[in-house]
Write a structure and sequence with these properties.
alpha+beta, four-stranded antiparallel sheet, 6 helices, 15 strands, 33% strand
């Protein structure tokens, strides 16, 4: 696996086009990774396509706008560099495997995850369930907590739960994970099995917190294959960093 980092310039017209549509960004990333554009990104569709998984995420803030791409082969980022990157900068790609190899049970890491916390509701006998997004910060955090153990980690409190973290979404409180940012991109995509286009809305949620590894093999799988739905549209990528204490 390869992790690529590209500093984007939101003032450029083409950059705004990419950032404005997860569908368009998905297409240019899949072109760069030479895998081809995938349509609907359901969990079922990708169950047997893990070896070809491409994840991506856009981080934005006062520090700038950064695109991360995790792919099974080193991407050709020429188009993104020429059309969307900060002038004079190049994509930086690292072999991700040495980092994955260093992970071990009981290690503690800070994490950032962009996900689409959602649930499926029954539409009746014989009908496919419909996906709905969790909309409150409490629901979104609950969604992640409910999936942590089976995904090889547990979320822990900093400083044994005594440190206060200020979430821009909620009030000041002692937390083990916070919702740092929420977005609701809306875009259209082609229907996979019939003519026409569908309107798609994603509850894209950025989580930050501290985790402890409980099952290294499972967590490696999650880091390289993502968490939750809408992976084609900038969700699912979790990255780890050494915990920084005040």
């Amino acid at each position: 696996m390869f992790l690529t980092k590209i500093e984007l310039d939101p003032h450029r017209r083409q950059t705004r086009k990419y950032l404005g549509s997860p569908q368009v960004m998905h297409a240019v990333i899949m072109k760069a990774t030479s895998i081809g554009v995938i349509g609907d990104d359901t969990e079922e569709f990708h169950h047997n396509h893990d070896s070809e998984r491409v994840l991506w995420r856009v981080d934005g803030g006062a520090f700038g706008t950064t695109l991360y791409i995790l792919s099974p082969r080193k991407p050709d980022a020429t188009q993104l560099e020429e059309e969307a990157a900060v002038a004079g900068t190049k994509a930086r790609t690292l072999d991700y495997q040495p980092f994955l190899n260093r992970l071990a049970d009981e290690q503690i890491w800070a994490f950032r995850l962009t996900a689409n916390p959602a649930y499926s509701a029954s539409m009746g006998p014989g009908a496919r369930g419909k996906r709905f997004g969790h909309v409150t910060a409490e629901q979104q955090i609950g969604w992640l907590l409910s999936r942590s153990t089976k995904n090889g980690f547990t979320i822990i409190d900093q400083d044994e739960g005594k440190r206060k973290l200020n979430s821009p979404i909620g009030k000041l409180e002692t937390v083990s994970v916070l919702v740092a940012r929420r977005e609701r991109p809306v875009f259209s995509r082609n229907r996979p099995d019939q003519p026409g286009r569908d309107r798609v809305t994603i509850n894209r949620t950025v989580y930050e917190g501290i985790l402890q590894i409980t099952n290294t093999q499972t967590l490696r799988h999650i880091l390289t294959n993502g968490i939750g739905p809408s992976k084609a549209y900038g969700c699912g990528l979790m990255t780890l960093a050494r915990e920084r204490r005040a």
